[in-house]
Fold these 2 entries.
Entry 1:
Amino acid sequence: MRSRSPLMICGVLLALLVVLFGLGLCAGRVWTPWSAWTSHGADPRWAIVFGLRLPRTILAILVGGALGLSGAALQGYTRNPLADPAALGVSTAAALGAVLTLYLGAAGEASWILPLAAMVGAGIGVAILLSLAGISSSIVTFLLAGFVIQTVCGAAIALALNLAPNPWAVNEIVNWLMGSLADRSVEEVRIAAPGVLAGSVLLLTLGRSLDALTLGEQGARSLGVELSRTRLLMAVGVALAVGSSVAVTGVISFVGLITPHLLRPVLGARPSAVLLPSFLGGAALTLAADILVRLTPAASEVKLSVAMAALGGPFFLAMLISMRRRLA
Amino acid sequence: MNPKQTLRADALAIQLGGRPVLGGITAAFTRGELVAIVGPNGAGKSTLLSCLAGLLKPDAGVALLDGGPIAALPGRHRARRLAFLAQTPEIAWDVDVRAFVGLGRTPHLGAFGPSAEDQAAVDAAIVSAGLEAFAERPVTRLSGGERARALIARALAGQTDWLLADEPLTGLDPGHALDALALFRRLAHDQGKGVIITLHDLNLAARFADRVLILSDGDLVVDGPPEVALTPEILSKVYGVAVRRHVGASGPLIEVLGRAG
């Protein structure tokens, strides 16, 4: 496995992202040519580009980047290639936090309440996970813990639906739960951006500690890594990034799982080398999937989370099969 | 003994999982010597080494580096002074040998990644461990012996004053085991490092170590030069085996005759 320069890969990913960004502004039910962009409102399609597609595209980049980077960081910390914020229940925990504010009607009080609750939920979920990773680095324990967190939070969300005061509340919760980027506005970008950016910067600073963890927790400590600090930064970073993403788009799975796996063959397995490329790669993957979703000819748009699961599920299975072969 | 050059165990005692593992061990190590810690399985060798490395907090007593408690040092400072090589280290990711050895530079890295000095230290460590031919190979595709040498190189890359290695010879064939011990001795005698290793091979301990510590059931049985420590009387008591000492072509030879009694 020959590892290429991370800088070069980042350049390639950035170029891909720029192309997708342009495509994301043009593509959709209505194709908007360049003339519509420069019309300054004279062409009705100008509003589509700048009022709908621009925030949606920016959001896809922020959310995809946050999920890809969180996945890469979690995989590095836990030395577990199957770690992913959605698969391990962190996203579901964030969703539970958000649903509670919808259920209690608190979400309408102020725009920051729902994202804050989502971040707190994600923070609690990831703290439970990482403390378990400290006790045992066994992949089985870890995945089981994630499964339990996801199931319990899922059940609590179902309970909230069950006890919802009226059908509108149910409708609101269900609509929000199905992860999607449709009809998001500048407001959502404003909500998500600070958390995603702050969380991502935090996670990007952890590269060296994650590299040292290649030698296990004792090995990392013998190299001078303060694990309690790493764990805290990791939990806060993932909580900010995933919490604020889930707050605006609901749960979108597989981005965090797949992105680092797609990148490792070209970048090598060193955890720090995968971090920034995973942000860019996750952003490109999510944006590409969202463009596909917009172009699918269906009566109503397919939800992004559904499309992602349809793409990610088979990929995950193929990965498990190849891992099984390697272990056997 | 200059306190500035020592690593000391001062009445170290620890219980793990409710079982007493170390029962108050006092010993001093100086730079420039190669010390072997031997003893039966479960005698507390690894635990003693972890406490000396500041990675395990003793219940009582203290490990002192240059006269100050090692546990009080910030991790990065400690790691620049002392390298620790665990017995069965985890290698989680399939990185190449050069990157793996480079992990040993972690406590030295500046803000902008590896410097020329870091690169030079990694190259020197790879040469010392005889890994030039494997430098670009993924660690997980090394044989057991090559892996053991990669681990030693990783510990060397930090260029620390102290090197503590828990059974570093596991998986090495006789030739490479001799190479490794000769390397440890050079590090101690020529470069003035303090090298402390745990070993099971009594003959290698007798031949290479400047000093041997024998642990049994968490207590220090004897601490002295090999000819004083590795006597048939002590070994038969500690290991429960009958032993005869010869003088072989290469030096002392300890022949295990069979179970004692």
Entry 2:
Amino acid sequence: MAKSALDQNHSLDRTLPKAPTGIQGLDEITQGGLPRGRPTLVCGSAGCGKTLLSMEFLVRGATEYGEPGVFMAFEESTEELAQNVRSLGFDLNRLVRQKKLFLDFVRVERSEIEETGEYDLEGLFIRLNAAIESIGAKRVVLDIIEALFSGLQNEGILRAELRRLFRWLKDKGVTAIITGERGDGTLTRRGLEEYVSDCVILLDHRVTDQVSTRRMRIVKYRGTTHGTNEYPFLIDEDGFSVLPITSLGLQHEVSTERISTGVPRLDAMLGGKGFYRGSTVLISGTAGTGKTSLAAQFVDAACSRGERCLYFAFEESPGQLIRNMRSIGLNLGKCVKNGLLHIHSSRATFYGLEMHLAQIHKLVQEVKPDIVVIDPIGSLVGAGTMRDANAMMIRLIDFLKLKGITAMLTNLASSGNALERTDVAISSIVDSWILLRDIELDGERNRAMYVLKSRGMTHSNQLREFLLTDRGIDLLDVYVGPEGVLTGSSRVSLEARERSAALASQQEAERKERERQRKREALEAKIVAMRKDFEVEDAESALIATQELARKQKVDADRRDMAISRQADEDNGFARPRRRQNSR
Amino acid sequence: MKKNPSSQKKAPLSLDEIGRKASEADAEKWDLRLYVAGQTPRSVAAFANLKRLCEEHLSGRYTIEVIDLVKHPQLAAGDQILAIPTLVRKLPQPIRKIVGDLRDTDRALVGLQLRPGKG
């Protein structure tokens, strides 16, 4: 993407041809390089990298763009120069032998020189011209040309001659860098910016909170647009690199592939499949909650899938990490041995943030990992200010996303702060955030985990107890009950209590059941007895009824017998009306 | 090499000392090189001034070599020549350089250490 923007600019800026510097990042912020055929002023205080910048400009020009260069030093001898830049991997002597580079040391010794009458700097012109001609140079560097001012007294002549020199360089059509020391309140001590006005680059070396950061700004670039911000840059064994933040965008490709976290139950919490490939995962938690272990488990799983991993450990050495992870049953040593895992350990405070970022960049380019772990990111704050660390993390995450690398970052949440907060305030740019916390209860501390966010997938809202066993990480359901969330032994004891309570209630139920049974039996026995009583009564009353009937029949029979026996008695007043009555 | 000029600067030399220096210088051979760039009026003037100065003070014991950098640009680096014209005193040691057209005879003599410095 950056490249296409560059090409576009090339076509737009046809009027202003540019000479690419070959310096990582600088060509992006200058949108193509330095103005071709014109002088550029590079200024800055002592030790900010002016000489290295200009030397790299020449070396890259000579080796990558086929433009030989002349380096004219006014402060360092050629031997010193060659020695100084050898540490950056530039072999000047070889380039000189190949006639791609010409080094010249112009020594100006005040004590040897007496001035009398008129003079000019034709000698310098001739030397420079001879040097340019000898190798057909297209690029020229005049390093600390202001040294002339300390060697020659007549400032009037010098100024006029410098003006002529820069004009002459333009006429020669060489792309030149002139370096100058930063002055008090001015860009250069002798006001060189007055003469070199096409492009001015300011280098700065600032120490904030005891950490030094180099920064670069393009003060002016006539006739073209350019990045105007201050850009951090660094100098390492590969030379100069500028890190433009804005050159990265949000246009990375996204993957729908899912990769396992290495913990099956965590996968289950993340929609059953784990993280998206190329996403950024943040694991945050307080000290000792198992961030590193979780990261190691992830790495172990990736390695067993045959993916390449790059692990930046800012707090542990590789040996220590491997040993510690063995205690939870992870054999990272094997992954290192078969070349899938690279552990890079360095103290965060060892060098500045930019250096870390560049280190990470470089290793990522070298190792070409599928997964990058940074453990922990918070310690990087120690290597710079909060703002810088934040900017750096954003750049880093963008960079990894652009490469489609899954990044796992761990963050130590300081105990005083809210858990849902990271030191470097990157929580908003991560895709998945897993929070590890400890739950302190009944005199013990237990780990718990939950998924705070995970973009683009359904994820569990459950808190899980997080166990580090000797076979890796295990997740358990936490006990959620009337007494709140319980973990660890209180969970175990509560479970035991619950079990005994359950047993008791079961026994109670059984007892009640037996009681009921007994009652029913009693009731039924009673019913039987009552029925028996009733039957007895029933039988008795039936007997009585039968006897009564028998008695009545007997009485009737008796009466009839009697009536029969006493016919005369038919007129009996007593008997007659009854009879009539009966007959009616 | 700094001994000489610094001792001179510390205190003005007495007449005796000047005399001694002069006689020391008498014994020495003077080897001078004048760097010019083409036949410019300034270089012509410089050469004329140098010639006159040497005839006056070093008659018979000096050699002047004129190097034209336009013809021999590679020679500029050897004596660290920047300004034109530059007169280099190769002998007697130490090496001294005088830039300019030598119009100011007094300063030229001081520069060549034929006369004590400004004190």
